[in-house]
Structures are given as C-alpha cells and as structure tokens.
Amino acid sequence: MKKMKKSIEIEVEREPDSMLTKVKKKGAPMSDRQLLVRMYEIFSPSGGEHAMVNFVSAYLTEKDIEHEIDSMGNIYCRNHVVGENRIIINAHMDTVASAPAKIVAEKTKDGDVHVKSSNNQVIGGDDKNGVFVALKLLMDKRIKQPLTILLCVAEETGCNGSEFAMTNHKEYFDDCVFCITVDRRGNTDIITQNFDYQLCSDEMEKTLGEWGKDFGLTTTQGSISDVSNIVTALEINGINLFAGYYNAHSGNEYTSIKDLSASLRFARYLLPTLRKHFTDNPEATKYTPKSAYRAVTYGGAYSGRYGTVWDYGHGSYEVTGAYTGKVLSDSQTDKLMDAHEIYLDVLDDIESITQLFFGEIAECDFRMSNSGKSLIFPDAYVKHKEEWDQLNVYIDCDCVNGGDVRIAVANLEDYDMYYKYKSPDGDDDWNA
Q1: Which residues contact 374 (CB under 8 A, 6 or more apart)?
Q2: 205 and 340 share a domain?
Q3: pLDDT single digits (tens) 146-184
Q4: How far is the C-alpha of 38 from the C-alpha of 75, rounded, in Å?
Q5: Among residues 136, 163, 127, which one has the least CA distance to residue 52?
Q6: Which of 11, 107, 279, 365 is the most core-located residue (most Cβ within 10 A)?
Q7: How far is CA 213 from the centre of its chain?
Q8: Terminal Cα-to-Cα distance of the chain (whole angstroms)
C-alpha cells in the first residue's frame, strides 16, 4: 500500500472564510515557524497590505525595535549595530493573493517541509519569505555588521513602494553601500542583473560568483524587483537573492523550509564577507548601475495574472538577442513582444480550463529564433521540465540544444485564434 504524505494543519487566526485579520495583544514569543505561518495567513494584496504592515510593526514593537512607517506603508528600521557602510536588507509585504490561504505543512521524503495552501490560494512566499529573512537578520545579536531594513508595499504592481521610498526618503539610506533584496524563487540564484539594470559592477558580479560556489549558487539574470529602484537611486551595488518559494503567483505555490533556511544562511555569510570586501576596497562602495543589455520580457510588470503590461518609467534601454549581442530594431522588438504576449495568453487559457499552473515558465527569459519563426526559452527545459511537459500536452514544445525550449510562433497564433473564436457550445465557426 502506498504510504500517504503527512499533512499538518496550522491554526488560522480568523473566522472561516473571513478576510479580516485579528490583531492580537502581546503574548508569548513566536517560534520561527509560527512567525512564517502567521505572515502567510495575513491577506495582504497589493494596495491592501495594511494588516501585514500592522503585524510587522507590532512584531518590531514587541522586540523593542524602533522603526518608522512612511505614508505609503513602507517600514524602515536598523539593527543593533551603529556605524556607516550599512547593508540594506529589502523585501516586500504585498502579494498577488485573491483570498486568504489555509496553511498546511507537508513533510517530504528527503526530510524537508513544504508549506502551502490547502484551498488553492497564493500563500505569499513571494515575498513574505524575504520579510522573514529580513526580520531574522534584524533580530540576530550575533551579527556585527550594521544593517538597514526596508520592507516595501506595492512591489507586485510595479515596485511602487520602493520607488516612493527612494523618491521621498532617500536620505535614510545615505550611509548604505550594498542592497540585498530577498525576493527570488528557488534555491540557486544570485540575481546580479534585472531586465532593466545591471545591479552590480562586473568585478562585484565575479566576486559574488566566487562566494556563491561553495553554496551551490550562481550569478544570473532576473526580471524585476525592488532592488532596481534602490541601487539606481543610491548608486550602489545590489543583488536579488533566492528565497525558497516555488510556483509563485499561483494556487500551488509552496515554500521549501530547507531552501528558505539556505537563503538565510547565505545572507548571514554575506554580511561579514561584504563588510571585509568594502573595507579592503573602499572604492567599490559606489557604483552607477548601467542599463541592461539582454533579451527581456517587458519594461514593466504584469497588472493581472499574466495580463497587461505596466511601464515602470525607468527610461529607454536596448533590447538585444540573448546570445548575439546585436541590438534589435524596433520592428524586431515589437515582433518579439507580440509573440510573447500571445504565449502568455495561451498559458492563461490553459490554466483557466485545467488545474495546471505555469508560474515558473511564464517568467522564463526568452528570445526570438534567428529565423524569427519561434520563441526560444534558453535553458528552460532543464530548470522547469515538469511544467514544460505539461504544456506540451496542449501545444508543441521542442527541447533543443540540450535544454532550450522552442515554440513556433505559428502554433501560438493558431491556438490563440482558436480559443478566442471558439463558441461556448464548441462551434469553432462562431463569430469567425
């Protein structure tokens, strides 16, 4: 008989089906597990983060940590170490959830624990895992390096919270020399370049790559996060660090406690290592971020599940082929963007008629093939094999070059036209 996985129900601090969050009086100290689960339980969609802001503020007050909250809801504080050359620890408090999640924890065969929802709701590991790491570092009295904490709102709608902080309260960070944003899926990535900016100097990226080797980490490229606003405003280096969440923005999102713990361990390692690096190389504390030169998705964020594009207003930048280094013309860029938008429409439709979720492959890097007839997703099959195999049931996805995924634009267009003009009764000629 197949042994069933063991699930552990976590008590929810609200009435069933209620979106209200109970504010509790000061009580017994919370364990790490209680802290993390409590944050997952709080319903905090972008623009409605008030309960989460209140919870974190109350937590800091109980810990006797002085902190400030701006008019948008961003939280600012510093750790117990006085001094300059401070390191920023950044995360965001909002999620894309549409309803509260019922939290369960499931033990895995390899000794890990996966925390997820039992009611098909987003748990908000993106980015409450980052908030958890920031709070743990803030409270750690063993840390001898001065830290500045910035917890933001409205990241998911275009990094608006961090933009507000940098526009109106930049002076709070005048003594900061590096930013660690903890807001990346998985357990392998040190993001040193977002779609819009190179977050680190070439020298800093190389150094980070060396530091990450013993932890099984590599420097790589990402999409968008608050770190872009922070490093460009302060003219410092920064990274976006993995946070141990998977399937973000979907009902089957989960957190690997093992991977979240690994993120915290590496962040702790970085603090004294960065401090020594900047002490030995004081000239490295200043860096003017450069526009990114790479194949990008969009100059903005998605306003819905995968929907409309937002323009962040970071200015113009050049879009290049992923491997060629050639700058794409406006028409080539438009063709690339149009094809990818259809791809996202296809994912959205398949999700709407199945119980599948394609959060990981929706965020993969991509480029146009040399012929202009296919979308190429570099190394995507190696990283997300299961999701590509699921998608391949509905639309042909070829694995090429040992791990890239290729989808013909014509196949995407055919699928897109089919579902747009398909009748509710299955008559394919409806409105044709």
Answers
A1: 368, 406, 407, 408, 409
A2: no
A3: 999 999 999 988 899 999 999 999 999 999 999 999 999
A4: 18
A5: 127
A6: 365
A7: 22
A8: 53
**pLDDT above 70: percentage of residues in the chain:** 80
Beta-carbon contacts of 235 under 8 Å, excluding residues fewer than 6 positions away, are 286, 287, 288, 289
Backbone angles phi, psi at 62, to 5 degrees: -60, -30
Cα(293)–Cα(259) distance, rounded to whole angstroms? 30
Domain match, 151 and 284 both: yes
HEC states along 62-79? HCCCCEEECCCCCEEEEC
In whole angstroms, what is the distance from residue 199 CA to residue 73 CA? 25
| Nearest CA-CA partner of 271 in 142, 103, 97, 122 | 142
Contacts of 36 (CB under 8 A, 6+ apart): 115, 128, 129, 132, 255, 260
Q: Which helix (H) or strand (E) holds 197?
A: strand 197-198
Is residue 104 within 8 Å of residue 142, measured between CB atoms? Answer: no
**Tokens matching residue 55:** 């919870």
Q: Are residues 255 and 380 in the same domain?
A: no
Kindly report the backbone phi and psi dihedral angles of residue 399, in degrees, each rounded to the nearest multiple of 5, phi listed first.
-90, 120
The reported pLDDT for the residue numbered 22 is 60
Please classify residue 107 by burial: count the beta carbons closer than 10 Å to its beta carbon, then call 0-12 exposed, 13-18 middle and 19+ buried: middle
Q: What percent of the chain has pLDDT over 90?
A: 56
**For the chain, what is the largest distance between any 2 Cα atoms, rounded to a whole number of angstroms?**
71
Residue type, 354: T
Q: Tell me: the pLDDT tens digits for 203-224?
A: 999 999 999 999 999 999 887 8
Neighbours of 320 (CB within 10 A): 18
Q: How many residues does the chain have?
A: 432
Q: Is 177 part of any domain? A: yes
Distance CA 429, CA 411 (A): 19
373: containing domain: 330-420
Instruction: Report the pLDDT averaged over residues 385-406.
Output: 88
Residue 390 one-letter amino acid: Q
**225-269: pLDDT as tens digits:** 999 999 999 999 999 999 999 988 888 899 999 999 999 999 999
**Tokens describing residue 77:** 């504080």
Give the three-state DSSP class for 25. Answer: coil
Nearest by Cα to 147 from 220, 213, 237, 86: 86
Is the domain of 140 the same as that of 212?
Answer: yes
